[in-house]
Amino acid sequence: MENRQVCRTASKEITMNLDERYTFGSSTKKKLLVFAAVGVVVTIIGLIMVMSGGGEHGAENEHAATLAAKNLLADANPSGATPVADASEESHGSAPWLKRLFVGIWINNIFFIGIAIIGVFFVAIQYASQAGWSAGMQRIPEAFGYWLPIGAIITLVMFFVAGHDIFHWTHTDLYTEGGANYDKIISGKRAYFFWPLQDNPGFPIFFIVRMVAYFALWIWFFMMLRKHSLAEDLDANTSHWYKMRSLSAIFLIIFAVTSSTAAWDWIMSIDTHWFSTMFGWYTFASWWVSGLAMTTLIVIYLKEKGLLSLVNENHLHDLGKFVWAFTIFWTYIWFGQFLLIYYANIPEESIYFHERMKTSNYSGIFYFNLIINFFLPFLILMTRDAKRKMTFLKLVCTMLLIGHWFDFYLMITPGSLQFDGGFGLLEIGVTMIFLAGFLYVALVNIAKAPLIAKNHPMLDESRHHHI
User: Fold this and answer.
1) CB 362 within 8 A of CB 414
2) Residues 197-249: pLDDT tens digits?
3) Around Cβ 308, how many Cβ atoms within 10 Å?
4) CA-based Rg of the chain, rounded to a whole angstrom?
5) SS3 content of the chain, % helix, strand, coil (to 5)
6) N or C end of the chain, less CB within 10 A?
7) Domain ranges of the chain
8) In degrees to the nearest 10, what's the CA dihedral of 228, 232, 235, 239?
């Protein structure tokens, strides 16, 4: 027997099936697998183009790029300080095409790990704040957390396989005082990466321990929240809700710290000389908007399939408000970080934006980033009606996922590839593979449980939610 209830709102009567489930059918699976296969083909074509000189930098441009790099770094370091990352002096590293592939994988890995942990973060916020409006849709972001173990494996493997190509600080000759490649600034940060072996840097123990700790904590809290969420469907006792509220409060404190330090480790340390005290907040803001956009798109996808009967235009309005508000929040953090560095005009700080604004590879994307992540979403979702229409939400959320992917591209690529970076089929193909994989994992796990947490104590509030 299906568990159906009737809800009377101010405008209409809604019949809800509290046992409704999403069926991840063979047709949808096939589409995602085909999408991933196309991504593999596009990646291979992109690799061939880069290897044959069809990418953004062929062999004929190598000398020009080297001179440009030296001039830029000289301009940014008029005092003669050690350059930030003079790739032209490097004698180590993989072939440019392979390095670009590694960087593309790293960008997507960090981007989708962020969406996964934001799914857990979203659920935790709802419980910690005792929110009721979202009770009918919490299973969607809740399922994102299943990507975390996959992301953890990719992160560890990529660091050991491609760490030297992505992270400049991993080269031990930078720490040999008196050596040709000795870097005083990077050497001064050795304890952060190599403790307790900072006197003789080799294996980055402290860095790896932190990486494992982040994932261990995130995955454990996710599994505990998921466990009690599913148990609540079988047992109407409110003890599960109280347990999830306590777990959520603890998780939010831990996440506040680990999300920032993970951003320092996995992204900011790529530009090893540069740092920003706002970077943790900035990365979180980009992850948060991306996670909200992904949640909204999947909610709409399920609604269009006739599911999530509890969710109506009022719930969509709240999701739209979240997306719109935190788009402004991301822009506020972006502008705050940029303005302080621009106004101070300290070479060691301004080099970060100089590389991204003045380098032809990245300058167009730098300004496009602001348009697609702020101006367009801000204007499109400004009205109340726009936040309640699936068409507008789909348009804006798709733009934001694309835009914030480019945001992570700008955070990672210039520091790791310098003037050899570019955007083409290689990056598109890798992104297609990751997107297909993430959606497959999310939809498989959404299908494993009822879409509505039917014994959630706040379900009645969600049922009558009206704004």
Assistant:
1) yes
2) 777 787 899 999 999 999 999 999 999 999 999 999 998 889 999 999 999 99
3) 24
4) 24
5) 70, 0, 25
6) N
7) 22-54+93-167+204-463
8) 60
